[in-house]
Each structure stands twice: as structure tokens, then as C-alpha cells.
């Protein structure tokens, strides 16, 4: 089991250049996690982790998060089968965010809408209007997977 | 000037599948921004945007954020010269996060420590110990650039 994390140092150089894992959890006890595909760096989703989710992710090599909507520990993919196997975990300079490089099992989809990435809409400007345009299709039918959504 | 954004719909399908930009700003008036390099998808940093920063980014094509530490609008790179030219802006499913694909000018460094990415440390397990290991070097000397840090 991963030992408890260190308390973040007040010394900025220790926090930014040190080897200790000392996550700066926010007032809700969370840090932000960016999730990218190991194969091509495609950014798949953004989520949050509490202390337990971060430790479980490090220990098991399978991504765990904290679901803010359900206020519960969340083993991503437990329902859909699209588990995230973690190849690498990186911390940012001030240790309030992590980057996970993962391989997604199941249907290779991360978004609950069935798409590979949650970032499936881009900002476009047409005829003086700024709007969103979807440029990827679902890989699975969410209705057939999630019965409680 | 980009018109004001729409109020997020209570209808999940409109929020997730619609073409309206309706950011779900949090209690602090912020959404999260993930920033990746257009060239190779390298994840460079994580930051936050308020309404004004998001509009300025869409309008000017140069990344603007809200600095939570300084409580001020932040045109990234204004001091260091490492401006971020925005090639693409993507919204996630529930519109509380954006992904920016950018080209970084100046010394091609995004982190205030002088490194290309803020995620310059990875989690390693050695001799039963879990710690951080730095695997990239600064591209510029922060001391020569930031006089107020």
C-alpha cells in the first residue's frame, strides 16, 4: 500500500523540484486529473481525485476518481467495461494536478456519451456566429450500458 | 466581439449534444482549461478561465486565463514571451472544461520553471518507495525572466 502522501511544503522549490509526492488537495479534498491515451496523447477526459482515489490508482495501476456528482469513489469503467490501465502518472509543478497516460479497455471509449474522448466538440465560427461542432461519433450506445443515467 | 455565452441548459441532451456554447462556470466563476501542443498533443499545463478570459481567447486567438493566485486576468506569456497561439478550442461533454490546442512562441516553454510542460515529474516506484522523478530540463532560466517570483 502506498504510504500516506507528504504535506505540501511551504517552500516553493521543495514543492516544485522535490521528489516527495505531496498533492495540494483543494478545499473539497480534490486534485484535478487530466487523462490522455498512452498511444497518441489524445486527451480523453478531465476528472478529480481525492487521497484514496490517487492512492488506489498508484497501487493498482487502474484509474480511480472521485465522482463529484455522486460523492463516491469511482472506478472508471466498472459499469461500461472501459477501464483505464495506467501506464504513467505525472504531477504538475505545484502538485494540484496529475496527468494520467492510459490504455482504455472495452470499446476504447471514455466519454459516457459513448465517444472516445469527452472533448468531441470544437468551437467554430461561421457566418459571424460562434458555436460548437461535433466531430466524432459514439463507439457504443450509452443506453445499452448505463441503466441509471 | 463574441456574444455572451448561453445559460447552460437543464436538459442534459442539449448541454451535451447541442451547438450552443454554454460554459458551466463553477462557484468561483471558472472553468478548467487543459492546454496541449498542436504539434504532438503534449499536455503543457492546466489553468482556469472566467467568462472574460474565455471570450478573449475565442476572439483574439491568444490564450487568456484567470490567475487564481493573483485574482487577475492573465494573458499567458505576456512576461516571458511564451504566448500561446490557439489553433483549436474544444469543449467537453458537460461544458465545465475546455481543451486548447496551441503553438507556443518564444522559447517554446509553458511552465514558469522554464520547462516545456508543467508535467515534468513522473511517479516512479523504486526500492519499495513511491516518489517523483524529473525527466525534463528548463528551456529558459526563470530568474532571468520573472522578477516578481
UniProtKB/TrEMBL annotation, chains A, B:
It is found in: Cytoplasm. It comes from the Bacteria. Pathway: Amino-acid biosynthesis; L-histidine biosynthesis; L-histidine from 5-phospho-alpha-D-ribose 1-diphosphate: step 3/9. Residues 45-120 form the Phosphoribosyl-AMP cyclohydrolase domain. The keyword DNA-binding does not apply. Mg(2+) binds at residues 92, 94, 96. Zn(2+) binds at residues 93, 111, 118. GO terms for molecular function: phosphoribosyl-AMP cyclohydrolase activity. Its cofactor is Zn(2+); Mg(2+). Its main location: cytoplasm. Pfam families: PRA-CH. It catalyses: 1-(5-phospho-beta-D-ribosyl)-5'-AMP + H2O = 1-(5-phospho-beta-D-ribosyl)-5-[(5-phospho-beta-D-ribosylamino)methylideneamino]imidazole-4-carboxamide. It is an enzyme of class 3 (hydrolase). Coiled coil: none annotated. InterPro entries: PRA-CH, PRib_AMP_CycHydrolase_dom, PRib_AMP_CycHydrolase_sf. Binds 1 zinc ion per subunit. Binds 1 Mg(2+) ion per subunit. The keyword NAD does not apply. Keywords: Amino-acid biosynthesis, Cytoplasm, Histidine biosynthesis, Hydrolase, Magnesium, Metal-binding, Zinc. Homodimer. NCBIfam families: PRK00051.1. Catalyzes the hydrolysis of the adenine ring of phosphoribosyl-AMP. HAMAP family: HisI (MF_01021). Belongs to the PRA-CH family. This is Phosphoribosyl-AMP cyclohydrolase. It comes from Hoeflea alexandrii. The lineage of its organism: Bacteria, Pseudomonadati, Pseudomonadota, Alphaproteobacteria, Hyphomicrobiales. The gene is hisI.
Amino acid at each position: 500500500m502506498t504510504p500516506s502522501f507528504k504535506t505540501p511544503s511551504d517552500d516553493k522549490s521543495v514543492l516544485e523540484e522535490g521528489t516527495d509526492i505531496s498533492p495540494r488537495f483543494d478545499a473539497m479534498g480534490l486534485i484535478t486529473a487530466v487523462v490522455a491515451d498512452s498511444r497518441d496523447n489524445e486527451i480523453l477526459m478531465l476528472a478529480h481525485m481525492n487521497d484514496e482515489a490517487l492512492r488506489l490508482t498508484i497501487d493498482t495501476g487502474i484509474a480511480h476518481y472521485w465522482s463529484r456528482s455522486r460523492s463516491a469513489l469511482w472506478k472508471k469503467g466498472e459499469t461500461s467495461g472501459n477501464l483505464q490501465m495506467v501506464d504513467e502518472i505525472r504531477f504538475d509543478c505545484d502538485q494540484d494536478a496529475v496527468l494520467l497516460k492510459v490504455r482504455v479497455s472495452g470499446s476504447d471509449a471514455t466519454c459516457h456519451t459513448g465517444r472516445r474522448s469527452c472533448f468531441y466538440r470544437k468551437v467554430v465560427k461561421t457566418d459571424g456566429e460562434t458555436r460548437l461542432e461535433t466531430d466524432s461519433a459514439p463507439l457504443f450506445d450509452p443506453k445499452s450500458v448505463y441503466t441509471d443515467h
